[in-house]
Amino acid sequence: MIINKKSLPRRTFLRGMGVTLALPMLDAMTPALSAAAKPVVRLGFVYVPNGIIMNNWTPLAEGANFEFKATMKPLEAFREH
Length: 81
Hints:
The protein is mostly helical and 81 residues long. Helices cover 36% and strands 0% of the residues. The termini are far apart. The model has no long low-confidence stretch (mean pLDDT 76).
């Protein structure tokens, strides 16, 4: 059955759609706001088409307290990151 003589005001329709769209989003945001912040895992790629001398880029020691070689000295300020 199709009713042709009834109309729905545009504002009423848009207000109803806004509530309909906002409710699922609010429910989905609740766990994210209560959870502790996790550290972001990032991955970086370096492409060098002509190659590099790996001895200048490979640290001699393992771990966080390695000594930067001459090629890597500009990166020393970002050691903590």
